[in-house]
Design a protein that fits this description.
Strand content: 25-35%
CATH architecture of the largest domain: 3-Layer(aba) Sandwich
Number of domains: 2
CATH superfamily of the largest domain: HUPs
Number of helices: 10
CATH class of the largest domain: Alpha Beta
Order of helices and strands: EEHEHHEHHEHEEEHHEHEEEEEH
Radius of gyration: 22 Å
Largest sheet: 6 strands, parallel
Shape: elongated
Structural class: alpha/beta
Length: 327
């Protein structure tokens, strides 16, 4: 079984041969806490032979509920789907979060969506889960509804790293402050930036460092401006490279761009889908007096990135040698 994505409740059909175990959430980031919920969901499905279903929402509920304070996303819908494939095999049901769904009470959501449409037998949620209009439905109410509608409720405890509970809010806070390493530690997997390659001003190619400019999602939370080492996936092709996030001071538009220079790669990939994974922070973005000064800095950046790549390769080689010695 692999991940099956269904968009819209109207397109979902409950299996007739077995029950369903469900989890619900935005799963923004698919971080270590989310992964623990998915482990429990998978374990329940294996023991009970229920079909696992993950319900998520698009757009993020707070876009409608608190539009002036809606968070930028760790993972867009495309990025979330890609990350979930590593941890979950079952049905990902994407519900359109609209006014009708927003105004359902906790009881109405359970009865109309979970019971009548999904025909669930068991529900797995995180310790801080809240649901229904204004997030009024608590874990206590959920368990009471479970007794009434005859489904079980599993509550997954928080995951802590160095005493801190892992959350999407905390990871966003870390990224905004340039703490990429810690953010990646709490995510438990690489941070993806997904987008379509678009034409830029062509400065990188003129300087000898052509870049793929990525048209990223408007609600995407980017790491702080600067230069990073990165990995890039173009279809089935994977490359190492350098990543620039920020305002290009030689670009009159002066908007924040995401540009990746792929090593050992020279293909036309305009309008192709790209996934970029920043791995290490190199330096902050800054303004240069001339393109010559910029080129010298890029040369230094590349040397540093190549050094990081070489060090990582040696570490992998050493780990394999140690593993082989223990066999």
């Amino acid at each position: 079984m692999s991940l099956q994505v269904i968009r819209g409740l109207e397109n979902y059909t409950a299996p007739t041969d077995r029950g369903v175990v469900v989890t619900i959430g935005t799963f923004d980031g698919v971080h270590l806490g989310h992964q623990e919920i998915l482990k429990r969901l998978t374990a329940v499905a294996e023991v009970s032979h229920y079909h696992p279903v993950l319900i998520t929402f698009h757009p993020h509920p707070r876009v409608l509920v608190t539009p002036d304070d809606a968070p930028l996303l760790l993972t867009t819908l495309e990025e979330k789907e890609r990350s979930l494939r590593q941890y979950f095999q079952g049905t990902m049901l994407v519900l359109d979060f609209n006014a009708d769904l927003q105004n359902l009470s906790a009881r109405e959501f359970v009865e109309k969506v979970l019971v009548n449409r999904l025909e669930l037998k068991r529900l797995v949620v995180g310790y801080d889960h809240a649901f229904g209009k204004d997030r009024s439905g608590s874990i206590v109410e959920l368990k009471e509804l479970g007794k009434e509608f005859e489904f079980e409720v599993d509550v997954v405890a928080p995951v802590k790293v160095d005493g801190d509970c892992v959350s999407s809010t905390q990871i966003r806070w870390l990224l905004r402050r340039g703490m990429l390493d810690r953010a990646l530690e709490l995510l438990g997997h690489p941070l993806a930036i997904h987008g379509i390659v678009e034409k830029g001003i062509g400065l990188g190619r003129k300087l000898g460092y052509p870049t793929a400019n990525v048209r990223y999602g408007p609600r995407k939370l980017l790491p702080t401006q600067g230069v990073y080492s990165c990995r890039v996936h173009v279809g089935h092709v994977k490359r190492e490279g350098m990543l620039f996030i920020g305002r290009n001071h030689f670009n009159p538009e002066a908007r924040i761009t995401v540009e990746a220079n792929l090593f050992d790669f020279d293909e036309d990939i305009y309008e192709r889908e790209l996934f970029i994974y920043p791995t290490h922070y190199i330096r902050p973005n800054r303004k240069f007096d001339s393109t010559d000064a910029l080129v010298e800095q890029i040369k230094q950046d590349k040397r540093e990135v190549l050094s990081i790549i070489e060090k990582e390769k040696r570490n992998v080689s050493d780990q394999r040698a140690q593993s082989s010695n223990h066999l």
